[in-house]
Design a protein that fits this description.
The complex is a heterodimer of chains A (about 325) and B (about 325). By secondary structure, chain A is mainly alpha-helical. Chain A is built from 13 helices and no strands. Chain A starts with 10 loop residues before the first helix and ends in a 16-residue tail after the last helix. Chain B is about 80% helix and about 0% strand. In chain B, helix 5 crosses helix 11 and helix 7 crosses helix 11. The chains are: A mainly alpha (about 325), B mainly alpha (about 325).
């Protein structure tokens, strides 16, 4: 987990700084941008993903680049349209989960006392309840579809963010500048929105990235079980149909392989971006690169210990 | 002792929340799905059975609090109702048949992954910036970003279908009878190898990274430097001094990881038609067998809570700070 305590840079400026400094983060951002473009413009370029276009379970060919499904639909069209559906749902759920986590976490950390005890109990209970079985039980009672999937992912996913935010908010609460704001008679709402939340902005940004990864993975899992709208096209339902049409046991690897690779690429892109963020906002990590470069420039081998001084370059 | 009791109280609250969720879900949801289910089963049921089913679910005309008390009573007695898909077998009995396989699958996957990942984490931290450290953690992270069940599909396709090294599904061969013979055990291991292997592969990266990162911090600390300066053999410094200390965060996250792996193994079971809880769960979802679904949720939750309590015991034993503050 990231030990983010600084929030000097936020929003677009932070993203730019990270991408410029860290090649891994740049690679992640580039990959993510490519997927975003596919999600936005891709569906206009491919045909109807539901249409029967050829013989079922055809291997990849010039006509159908990724072959056809067990129902004779074009796999590439399904993949591209699924990208739009799954990424947008994943991102929305990611943002919602972080927003709820921030709300609960800041309230617990800032107010302390009984409110803290009650809210902490709540998110700790939700953390210890196994997420996927809970999500399945709730989703089974609701009409299947993206709304249900989003709802159960939010219910089962917010607790971890709340716990991390609570720890940070409660340590910020002890700082002098917050104490000064309290003494000078600022209202709670103002202190939270003006003093505490800005300090947490880079943490929350990192959480959105992490939660989006979670949401995409969990969403695919639920849809694979048939709890999404199986008549619609998304990454998870693509895999659901691949499994149901026994694609594996007929050797039709092209019906499930591309979707999994896309999920992993998006996940990797997000984690690359996040590691770049970590590097910037975690002082221990951010001094390490310049320090190693400093030593290497003088022909020295870095010791095993992590440097805690900052080289003035 | 105080500390353990407090944790026990917390798990009791968590269990109560799970039971209450089970109670409230059918009553909060639109369309009254439970009644719809009873309606479908109406032809098969005698009026007495129907009445007892309604009572199990507390779906009587009593006020809500009375229904709730009735429900709690049934759950505490271990009565989770009757499965609709496997009518008229009680839910507890249906769950019992699948429980062994899920515990075997998820349990061995978690233990193997934890042990292997921790060792690899120690190794990569010690030979930091070496060749293995350069490619292993990123490679495992990449593999870990695939959905668990998708890795299972690939494993089944490559090692099971294409190469024919492993059986294609189920927990053991049809022609064998479950018995404590060498032949049967070997058969079970052969059937479990692919699902367990894909779960281990999917979760390994997390353990390696967490152990590696803590180890790096610990290896830089003064007491490890002192141990090294004293000229102690490296193996002793790494294992007895550093790794012992660095293990704590990994163990603390062990309980939570168990919940994740259980969830992952539910999906993996479906890929391999493995007759565990996940396989039952998906059948319950498809046939709208709500009692079975809720029973499985409760059963998995209790298993996770119990495992977490065991982790608490281990942490207490390992960490003198908690031990001292607890006594």
């Amino acid at each position: 987990m990231s030990g983010v305590t600084t929030g000097r840079m936020a929003g677009l400026a932070a993203w730019k700084a990270v991408v410029r400094r860290d090649p891994r983060a740049a690679a992640g951002a580039f990959l993510l941008l490519a997927f975003a473009l596919v999600a936005i413009f891709g569906p206009m370029l491919v045909g109807d993903p539901q249409a029967m276009v050829g013989v079922p379970l055809q291997p990849p060919s010039w006509q159908h680049w990724l072959g056809t499904t067990g129902q004779g639909q074009d796999v590439l069209a399904q993949l591209v349209v699924g990208t739009r559906v799954s990424l947008s749902l994943g991102f929305l759920v990611g943002v919602a989960v972080v927003a709820i986590g921030a709300l609960v976490g800041v309230a617990a950390g800032y107010f302390g006392g009984r409110i803290d005890a009650a809210l902490s109990l709540l998110f700790n209970v939700f953390l210890v309840l196994p997420g996927l079985p809970l999500a399945i039980v709730i989703a089974a009672y609701l009409p299947s579809g993206p709304r249900t999937v989003a709802l159960v992912l939010i219910v089962t996913g917010w607790a971890w963010n709340a716990r991390v935010v609570r720890a940070q908010a409660s340590s910020l609460r002890q700082r002098d500048f917050v104490a000064a704001a309290v003494v000078s008679g600022e209202s709670d709402a103002r202190i939270i929105t003006q003093e505490i939340l800005p300090m947490l902005s880079s943490l929350l940004l990192a959480q959105v990235i992490g939660s989006t990864t979670y949401a995409i993975g969990a969403q695919v899992g639920l849809e694979f079980l048939g709890l999404g709208d199986v008549a619609a096209v998304s990454w998870g339902t693509n895999l659901y149909w691949a499994q149901n049409d026994s694609a594996l046991l007929t050797g039709a690897w092209w019906t499930f392989a591309p979707t999994g690779v896309c999920i992993a690429l998006v996940g990797t892109a997000l984690s690359l971006l996040n590691s770049g963020f970590d590097e910037m906002s975690n002082p221990r990590l951010s001094v390490e690169h310049p320090w190693r470069a400093f030593l290497a420039a003088r022909g020295q081998v870095p010791a095993r210990s992590t440097p805690v001084v900052k080289s003035h370059d | 002792m105080n500390h353990l009791l407090r944790r026990l109280g917390f798990y009791a609250i968590a269990a109560w929340v799970a039971i209450t969720i089970n109670f409230l879900l059918p009553r909060l949801m639109p369309g009254d799905p439970a009644t719809a289910m009873f309606g479908r089963m109406l032809g098969q049921l005698s009026p007495e059975t129907l009445q007892s089913l309604r009572e199990t679910f507390g779906l009587t005309s009593d006020p809500l609090w009375k229904q709730y008390l009735g429900y709690l009573q049934h759950v505490l007695r271990g009565d989770l109702g009757i499965s609709a898909a496997y009518f008229p077998t009680p839910v507890t009995q249906v769950i019992g048949t699948g429980l062994v396989w899920t515990v075997l699958l998820a349990g061995s996957a978690v233990v193997i992954s934890f042990a292997l990942g921790t060792l690899l984490g120690i190794a990569t931290a010690w030979w930091r910036r070496g060749t293995v450290d350069a490619w292993l953690p990123p490679a495992l992270t990449f593999i870990g970003s695939f959905p668990y069940f998708w890795l299972s599909m690939v494993a089944l396709y490559v090692a099971g279908f294409s190469l024919g090294w492993f059986p294609l599904g189920h927990a053991y061969s049809d022609e064998l009878q479950p018995a404590w013979t060498f032949e049967f055990l070997w058969d079970v291991i052969a059937h479990a190898a692919l699902p367990v292997g894909s779960l281990v592969l999917a979760t390994l990266g997390g353990w390696v990274l967490s152990m590696r990162n803590t180890m790096i911090t610990v290896l830089g600390s003064d007491y490890v430097n002192l141990a090294r300066a004293k000229g102690l053999p490296p193996a002793r410094v790494v294992l007895r001094y550093a790794a012992r200390d660095a293990l704590l965060p990994s163990i603390t996250s062990f309980g939570m990881a168990l919940g994740f792996v259980l969830g992952g193994s539910l999906l993996t079971e479906i890929v391999f038609s493995y007759p565990g809880q996940g396989y039952l769960l998906v059948q319950a979802v498809r046939s709208q067998d709500y009692p079975l679904m809720q029973g499985i949720f409760l059963c998995i939750t209790l298993a996770v809570l119990a495992a977490n309590w065991c982790v608490d015991l281990v942490v207490l034993w390992l960490d003198p700070r908690i031990r001292d503050s607890a006594s």
